[in-house]
Amino acid sequence: xxxxxxxxxxxxxxxxxxxxxxxxxxxxxxxxxxxxxxxxxxxxxxxxxxxxxxxxxxxxxxxxxxxxxxxxxxxxxxxxxxxxxxxxxxxxxxxxxxxxxxxxxxxxxxxxxxxxxxxxxxxxxxxxxxxxxxxxxxxxxxxxxxxxxxxxxxxxxxxxxxxxxxxxxxxxxxxxxxxxxxxxxxxxxxxxxxxxxxxxxxxxx
Length: 205
What we know:
The chain is α+β, with helices and mostly antiparallel strands.
């Protein structure tokens, strides 16, 4: 039978002993794959086991909403799962020393040619902590204006993505009934509503 949580409810930092690490893939890219050998705290180091770790610098996701409560969306192909997802502007924290908010501003400009006056952090979450170090920082952006992409050029999958505006109420409904499967999209929509940052769907335009 489960016990009551010890102390205040919440995640806590922890670290188990690692007795060896092997790089399985590593080059000059910001991502890498390694295999760690670790054991339980206080246990015999010979009683160890392996865990694969996908190193990821983290990412930002931007829920950009205009004055009519429309959300800026993009549809983009993702080869790993063979789906063209409805997504939000997003990008990697791949520049040393750059804060998540700076990256969010940059990605909104590069992917959509937009700037925002008001930025609200929604949450920072780990999508799959059993296998990757990735953390995703979700933001709500309002007070949008067109600024252009500058000299930034879209390549590969981004060059084929489609940008469009979707009423928040329709997007929210699509998330609830399973028509949207991109995790950050669903999280951002639900968080913005739960935090009373966007109107209830019945009141949305």
